[in-house]
């Protein structure tokens, strides 16, 4: 079903019509300036474009699991949209596999997270099937995740992440999200001028943090004016399958460093060792990978 150019349309389907269209799998909506929200069950693919009046995609009164079959979602050129995934939608989008968001000028965050003390709600509930996340030209986005989910949400199946043109972003991932990216194969981040670190510092953590990307093969970082480190605290990075590395115009990023020098710096700082600007790679390990042919594309 495609709806396009209906400038005075405010609702796609009235509540009493939902049952009659329960088998609809694909919905595309273009340039319907007056549409304020989308309420539709059982979709597998949803594409929304050019909806200047839309502030919310989802109704606050959706029934449980009404979007449980949604696998692909694309949102673009919705100038007044401020949120994509609200807390009340986290359980409903459990089957979402691909999320693309382009050119939404008012968007400030993608996943709005709310903390909970409820044991039942603290399990892995949302976006567990998400495999691909693409964000482009979202000038006001300050956070992809509004806060560190701390286990409320995990993204263990994400294998492709591409982020570009997010000029207000300061960091890309919370710590807990990063630690769960065991299936990530491709990470591409470009033209995010204000990003200072890829992973935000976990509050209250003074010990060494381990980040392991066992499936990552391609890493691209382009045009970061403020990027200084992968993680601002003391950490260990492991990406054993990395074979394609492209880093350009990241002048403040310390790409290479010596293991011995790092140990000397750590000893000198004592308990303030977590403030060290660690390199992305230790030169000894990197040369070993080059010798073995593990990294065959490096720029």
Automatic annotation (TrEMBL):
The keyword Manganese does not apply. The keyword Protein biosynthesis does not apply. Keywords: Plant defense. SUPFAM superfamilies: RNI-like. Gene3D superfamilies: Ribonuclease Inhibitor. Residues 1-39, 42-193 form the Disease resistance protein At4g27190-like leucine-rich repeats domain. It holds the Pfam family LRR_RPS2. InterPro entries: At4g27190-like_LRR, LRR_dom_sf, Plant_NBS-LRR. This is Disease resistance protein rps2. It comes from Quercus suber (Cork oak).
